[in-house]
Design a protein that fits this description.
Helix content: 40-55%
Structural class: alpha/beta
Largest sheet: 8 strands, mixed
Order of helices and strands: HEHHEHEHEEHEHEEHEHHHHEEHEEEH
CATH class of the largest domain: Alpha Beta
CATH superfamily of the largest domain: Type I PLP-dependent aspartate aminotransferase-like (Major domain)
CATH topology of the largest domain: Aspartate Aminotransferase, domain 2
Shape: globular
Number of helices: 14
CATH architecture of the largest domain: 3-Layer(aba) Sandwich
Number of domains: 2
Bound molecules: pyridoxal-5'-phosphate
């Protein structure tokens, strides 16, 4: 009766069962995976947000496949502040970056084709690609003293996909990546562009965390890339920490002819759905402006929790180190050898015996055991209490 693409295992895993059971018994859970900013105690400019949603413009319906022109001008102004000139005609509004991925996969690839995605990275790629009948071919991010994209390994992945899987159509980069927090470096970006030109691949650059750089180096945006067909994704979900508003966008750039063709075809895809709601689109300028109140709070929170983590890790005999974080909302703990042998078991023990929820690395595609992924958004006292429990448990098992 159902499509094979929906043949997912539907039973909850052991970790989900443990957390569900604790919650059902009314026991507390310290959630170190919490990445919903509306649940992390930030002080939003509620008046500005609610006023923006009650404009008379919300009562008018003027469908446009690109999305409301006023909203696109606000998005263009956001990029102008970053020194990038984007024309409103290069922008398509969508309800989420997930929807943006779906549009791009429909634009670029036929069933059975493939897209390249970093590993470790955002767990939703498998679902987004699978729902569009595409294969994900991973390429590794490697950690030395920081994370790097290995363009030689990416080239091998493209060649492997070409030989054995569906035709590769696009390379996804996440800048900075979730959960590694790593930005694409300038030399990697140049090599990536060269590879994409050679193999006729588009670039899909997910920049949702780009405003959350934790180091002061200047960072580029892929929106400026005009030598390869490039689609840059971003939205209010992270920029203004407003995931409930459901407003994201695609910026199209690249060589003239390819860019024109992509825009023409995307107009038809977007016109088929017209999914962005007018009240939210007409509030876009004000909702974007609220980033100025919320982003400083988020950056302070990310720094405070990172410092707390480092303080607690800096004890003699600690079994864990944290990997370098250049930006984004997550930190990764790398664990030294010791029981239990796999991260799933450790996370299940932490949930059952300590009431702490953390994600095992494999959830994000880490191949080696010994990695835990933590959100840096929780309220500091909660974060500190959770980290204390994780490190105490690790210590007791050495
Ligand atoms: C890399 C990445 N892209 C996109 C998203 C989701 O964005 P949206 O809420 O716009 O779908 C997330 C959510 O955590 C993410 O980690």
């Amino acid at each position: 009766m159902f499509a094979r693409r929906t043949d997912w295992p539907l039973e909850p895993n052991a970790l989900t069962r443990e957390i569900g059971s604790r919650r059902a018994r009314g026991l507390p859970v310290i959630d170190l995976t919490e990445s919903n900013p509306t649940r992390c105690g930030f002080d939003y400019d509620s008046r500005a947000i609610l006023q923006a949603l009650s404009k008379p413009a919300a009562l008018d319906y003027a469908p446009d496949p690109h999305g409301l022109p006023e909203a696109r001008r606000a998005v263009a102004a956001y990029y102008e502040e970053r020194g990038v000139c984007v024309e409103p005609n290069q922008i398509f509004l969508t309800a989420s970056t997930s929807e943006a991925y779906a549009y791009l996969f429909r634009l670029l690839a036929d069933p059975g084709d493939s897209v390249l995605a970093p590993q470790p990275s955002y767990p939703l790629f498998d679902f987004l690609a699978g729902l569009n009948d595409l294969e994900v071919v991973t390429y590794p991010l490697v950690y030395g003293s920081e994370w790097h994209m290995n363009v030689d390994a990416l080239t091998l992945s493209v060649e492997r996909a070409n030989r054995a899987l569906g035709i590769p159509r696009a390379v996804i980069v996440v800048h900075p990546n979730n959960p590694t927090g790593s930005f694409v470096k300038a030399d990697e970006s140049a090599a990536l562009a060269e590879l994409c030109r050679r193999h006729e691949l588009a670039i899909i650059a997910d920049e949702v965390f780009s405003d959350y750089a934790l180091e002061s180096k200047s960072r580029f945006s892929h929106t400026a890339c005009d030598s390869v067909l490039t689609f840059t994704l971003n939205g209010l979900s992270k920029i203004s920490a407003l995931p409930q508003m459901k407003l994201a966008w695609i910026v199209v750039n690249g060589p003239n002819d390819e860019r024109r063709q992509a825009i023409g075809r995307l107009e038809i895809i977007a016109d088929t759905y017209l999914s962005v709601s007018t009240p939210v689109a007409s509030a876009a300028r004000e909702l974007l402006a609220t980033r100025n109140t919320v982003q400083p709070q988020l950056r302070a929170r990310l720094r405070q929790n990172l410092e707390e983590l480092d303080r607690r890790l800096a004890v003699p005999g600690s079994r864990a180190v944290r990997l370098r974080v250049e930006g984004g909302w997550y930190a990764i703990l790398r664990l030294g050898a010791g029981p239990p042998a796999n991260d799933d078991d450790l996370c299940t023990i932490l949930a059952r015996d300590d009431g702490v929820l953390v994600h095992p690395g494999h959830f994000y595609g880490f191949e080696a055991e010994g990695h835990l992924v933590l959100s840096l958004l929780p309220v500091p006292v909660t974060f500190a209490e959770g980290i204390e429990k994780v490190l105490t448990r690790l210590g007791s098992m050495s």
